[in-house]
Amino acid sequence: xxxxxxxxxxxxxxxxxxxxxxxxxxxxxxxxxxxxxxxxxxxxxxxxxxxxxxxxxxxxxxxxxxxxxxxxxxxxxxxxxxxxxxxxxxxxxxxxxxxxxxxxxxxxxxxxxxxxxxxxxxxxxxxxxxxxxxxxxxxxxxxxxxxxxxxxxxxxxxxxxxxxxxxxxxxxxxxxxxxxxxxxxxxxxxxxxxxxxxxxxxxxxxxxxxxxxxxxxxxxxxxxxxxxxxxxxxxxxxxxxxxxxxxxxxxxxxxxxxxxxxxxxxxxxxxxxxxxxxxxxxxxxxxxxxxxxxxxxxxxxxxxxxxxxxxxxxxxxxx
Length: 319
Known about the structure:
Helices cover 40% and strands 20% of the residues. It is built from 13 helices and seven strands.
């Protein structure tokens, strides 16, 4: 590839935006011109952009997952279209605060893009900007966002695959809201959005018990993930206390109240706690049941670990 020839090709449009830096390679083209390949990612897209180091300055000490504000032009190349950047700078706080909710979750690190799309679409549909901001404060943390997108929900139990934590979290959130809509159709929208968030973040403590590659951390052995939920949500809850203190208290109660097998906690004082608990159990059991009978064309008993599952024989044509 010759960078100067690429830059002379027809300009296909302007490339600009705020992205996380998810990869960087220094290289020389066929004419010896030094350049960088930057992988730039946001929740909607993942790009490989080129930087001519002889004409474009790069900020010092830009690190992995740094938020960058970039401008450039798109040019056609032999292997596809490439943005060639003319301006790169670290995104300022004011620029970051103006971004829509969850914009900075890197699509490059999500093995389940459709789940990421659903997450972003749902959170941005909230009427409560306070709750949108809360979810952003919890999930767009530089040190934890890769884990939330990549980690399994468990090692050898339900949703035990890369991206399983995101899939399970969304399933619990959706099903909890479905139960609420069925039994409490007239409930305020704010409470329905709160119910979704409670389900979505019920396992957020697992961002401490797994690393970005989905491997167990020392906290996996030393701590229960449930005990880390409030820590993971601490900054978001502190903000929510200032604008929606009743909702902040509701979320704390849902995540800490007593449930079957719990070692501590006050009894559930509102139905949302039961919806989240039941949706969590059903999501786990349904995934395990699918695993127990995966690849089997017959009914009967199946097993996942120590759990036994039963599939009755039913004639599909029977009314």
